[in-house]
């Protein structure tokens, strides 16, 4: 087996958890309490991010998928995780994945590159999110840089950029959350962002108390709501990691038993992405060999088949 392609596995990682006393329960009126909860959750998440387990790529891409599902509701679409996976993985090479697949592509880009935003990246992401480009958006990279360099604490910096984007372009809510996660990563000095906030865009924390409706970026309480969204997003991210880690540990345990030529390439992809097609082919792995490999990994509980279909299967940790 081409084991050189597989990152070294450390002692199996115990995924941190957010203490029960720090879990958000409904809306919180006081910004100080909301900020406290966000800080406690980010502290737990920071431990995992800095540990950087070999399956961190798959974990981040799973978070990107979760965020993309919420983004569908923001733009009035109905695609779920299964539909988004199909839009992405079942297209032919070079095909446009369509509006839903493009939004997933924007989330995957957030999860797959070091934090920071230049004008070219911003223009590209805006296009993936279906936004018409305009001159006011061109000011945002400088604002992100300023907030990252000398801005308020991470959750409030995230709220500040989300508020600025919505003030400039009310139709650009998704871009605001995309940039908010960039700022979280920059302020926390993470090597890679963890997609959190877009997945909370329709959370109950943004409901207005008493008056009904949803908080807008200019409303009192928006910063506190973003802090709660950060806390909820971090908690959800850790639960996602806790689901992936045991399968990764089982994968580690069976590595010595794998003899298939090209198995290392498939395993490296499983560790780095949310899903891998069962029809994977590489220079060293045939479609038949990939099918046998994935079936064996599934039998060992190291991967799961994600579609429930008899054909066009997708596998992931």
Automatic annotation (TrEMBL):
InterPro entries: DUF1403. This is Uncharacterized protein DUF1403. The lineage of its organism: Bacteria, Pseudomonadati, Pseudomonadota, Alphaproteobacteria, Hyphomicrobiales.
């Amino acid at each position: 087996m081409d084991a050189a392609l597989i990152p070294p596995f450390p002692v199996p990682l115990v995924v941190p958890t957010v203490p029960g006393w720090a879990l958000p329960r409904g809306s919180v009126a006081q910004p100080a309490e909301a900020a406290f909860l966000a800080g406690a959750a980010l502290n737990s998440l920071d431990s995992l991010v800095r540990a950087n387990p070999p399956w961190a790529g798959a974990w981040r891409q799973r978070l990107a998928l979760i965020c993309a599902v919420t983004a569908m509701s923001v733009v009035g679409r109905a695609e779920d995780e299964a539909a988004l996976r199909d839009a992405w993985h079942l297209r032919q090479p070079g095909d446009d994945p369509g509006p839903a697949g493009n939004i997933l592509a924007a989330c995957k880009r957030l999860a797959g590159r070091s934090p920071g935003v230049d004008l070219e990246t911003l223009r590209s992401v805006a296009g993936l999110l279906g936004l018409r480009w305009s001159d006011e958006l061109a000011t945002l990279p400088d604002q992100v840089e300023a907030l990252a360099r000398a801005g308020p604490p991470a959750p409030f910096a995230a709220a500040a950029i989300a508020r600025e984007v919505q003030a400039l372009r009310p139709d650009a809510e998704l871009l605001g959350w995309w940039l908010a996660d960039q700022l979280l990563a920059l302020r926390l000095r993470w090597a890679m962002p963890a997609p959190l906030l877009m997945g909370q865009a329709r959370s109950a924390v943004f409901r207005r108390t008493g008056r009904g409706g949803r908080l807008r970026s200019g409303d009192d309480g928006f910063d506190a709501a973003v802090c709660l969204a950060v806390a909820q997003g971090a908690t959800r991210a850790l639960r996602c990691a806790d689901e992936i880690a045991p399968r990764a540990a089982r994968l580690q345990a069976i590595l010595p038993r794998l003899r298939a030529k090209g198995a290392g390439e498939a395993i490296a992809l499983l560790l780095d992405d949310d899903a891998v097609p069962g029809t994977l082919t590489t220079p060293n792995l045939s479609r038949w060999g990939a099918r046998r490999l994935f079936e064996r990994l599934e039998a060992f509980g190291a991967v799961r088949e994600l579609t429930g279909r008899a054909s066009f299967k997708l596998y992931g940790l």
